[in-house]
Amino acid sequence: MDKNQNRHTFWKTERGSFVTFAIVSTAVFLIFICFISSGSILRWIRAGRELRRQEKLIEAYQADIDRMGTEVELLSSDKDSLEKFAREKFHFAAPDEDVYIEE
């Protein structure tokens, strides 16, 4: 019983009042910083996630650009590969050929 009584009397003393005030003030300040202020931590976290997502998209698009550049280079330099690409992609055929399309 003695320890419980000491705890209750601590909060009623001047030092206990200051500790209570400090805890409440800190909680209010943290709530203000995290949720209310215009530069809140939550916005920073969301912006960081969005930035990482955008960077991944940039990397994927850059890989596509590199792949397409290689394909363009190959198609512009070799007539046979251009003809093969046209036949496969657009179903082109030579004038004396029959084309059967399977889907």
Protein architecture, described:
The structure is a single chain. The protein is mainly alpha-helical and 103 residues long. The protein is built from 4 helices and no strands. The chain has helices spanning 2-12, 14-36, 41-77, 79-90. It is rod-shaped and about 105 Å long. The model has no long low-confidence stretch (mean pLDDT 80).
List keywords for this structure.
103 residues, rod-shaped
Output the radius of gyration. Answer: 35 Å
Q: Give the low-pLDDT segments.
A: none
What would you call the shape?
rod-shaped
Q: Which percent bin holds the helix content?
A: over 70%
Spatial gap, N to C terminus: 85 Å
Secondary-structure element order, as H and E? Answer: HHHH
Overall average pLDDT: 80
| Category from helices, strands and their pairing | mainly alpha
Number of helices: 4
The fraction of residues assigned to DSSP E strands is under 5%
Outline the biggest β-sheet: none
Give me the count of strands: 0
